[in-house]
What we know:
Distance between the termini: 59 Å
Low-confidence stretches: 1-15
Mean pLDDT: 84
Helix content: 55-70%
Radius of gyration: 26 Å
Shape: globular
Structural class: mainly alpha
Order of helices and strands: EEHHHHHHHHEEHHHHHHHHHHHHH
Amino acid sequence: MGSEEGDDGLRRRGCSCxxxxxxxEESFKSMGNYFKALKETPSRFIxxxxxxxxxxxxxxxxxxxxxxxxxxxxxxxxxxxxGVGAVIGSxxxxxxxxxxxxxxxxxxxxxxxxSGVSAxxxxxxxxxFAVEIPVAGGSFAxxxxxxxxxxxxxxxxxxxxxxxxxGAAVARSWTSYFATLLNHKPDDFRIIAHSLHExxxxxxxxxxxxxxxxxxxxxxxxxxxxxxxxxASIIHMLVILFIVIAGFTRADFKNYSDFAPFxxxxxxxxxxxxxxxxxxxxxxxxxxxxxxxxxxxxxxGLVGSMVLTTVCYCLMAAALCLMQPYGQIDPDAPFSVxxxxxxxxxxxxxxAFGALKGMTTVLLVGAIGEARYMTHIARAxxxxxxxxxxxxxxxxxxxxxxxxxxATALIALFTKLGILAxxxxxxxxxxxxxxxxxxxxxxxxxxxxxxxxxxxTFLVFLGLILASSVATAVxxxxxxxxxxxxxxxxxxxxxxxxxxKFLVAQARAPKLWGVPLVPxxxxxSIAINIFLLGSIDGKSYIRFAIWTGVLLVYYxxxxxxxxYDTAKETLKEKMMLQNAEEGSVATDKSGxxxxxH
Length: 597
């Protein structure tokens, strides 16, 4: 945000702001224009819902709105360690004990496998999009191309919520593990503001300080952040290796005698919660714009990091349940207490150190990912275009980085965030399901090329896949003992997917890398994500609906009109350019004819 060269050749401060940096569109030029735009809301809304973006628009026109290019400095090695750093954080150190004790028992390792399979299917879908459309927008850009502006905005708003609230939760957890490392209680480092509500009166200045440091690291450059993340992740992996080896050396296989005490329902309920431990890999897809060779680096980096993460999670969960009977596992600090129980009290400090390293990298990669999401949303003018600015010197979106980390720090300072873990899982599973739907649409429907018959047949099968998946999830949530319903819903899902495979021709093939076994893998991703949604409590859906309602209000008052004006202005510029080119060609032909004469 330093000094930069303006269009008029004068040097000006990059942080100087005017109204046009935030609301430059025609609808906001005057109150009269705004009220006129509000009257046109229904027609504009239909236009935005029905209009899809194009690959070329996301790859070229949208990127140009940032003023400067992001620097292409990342390889598959960087992406793989960014993936590990983004995912392996506080979730494994806290949620494992909670779910093993209360929901799954030693079968928590199976829960991690189920969550890992769901995450891997989503990774495949994200990877194809990231290779085909290597831009900073991640799922926002993918959904904008395949499902239109409106669905992309609702999805992106939930992803932003996930990053801000999740980052704040990790920052407060950072304080807790830091206190453990120093043999203190977390509240020893917090300020108690008695005048505030009890859910907001434990002020956490250390969490704010961590957010500030992360903000600086994320803003100075992606490659520098990659080096830091790589070193921190290596140390973290060494700590995990110690936990696994030491845990197995103190194993008592009698603890596995009652492997699944809560049955299959407990295993799947745990899977829906433990999915939170896999959140973060989508941040890596937002770095596609900074990747040297997207066609090679993104598949290796994303898939490799998810395989490594799943293996680590399963080994750690198995080691924990072998050290202690599941009923004695501590839900708050499971690994530390487990090592104390087997006489290795000193190991809790090493566990706390490893957790701190993991949470630091989660915060860093999350900060990088959320800023790039926000940058691309601002490029589309759904958020103020000021947030789309890319700094010429660092090649990073500094404005978006500072704004997002400020929001994270404010929430981390005031708020206890335990109740929001399920809400974050709802948002994320919803987004991952939409990305799988978008991939099927990308493969089977191309405007102007797909026949009416194939389009209609595809929509019928897609509708049946979604309906059967929702029915399975609802039946699971409502019916505790009977399995009869699954004998209907699962065959419908299978036959619908098979019908799409054999009765609908694919309209588009991936250019560089594609998801294998289409439509089976995307369809399975849809089914598993919706199934896991059925295991989450009802209060989380109420919070999800409230946040989505807030997004809808913002979109109808501001985002809709900004994107509508931007689209019309872009179309007008294209028409003028096309007319100018046609006029130039006509002039050239006329000149040539005169010369021949």
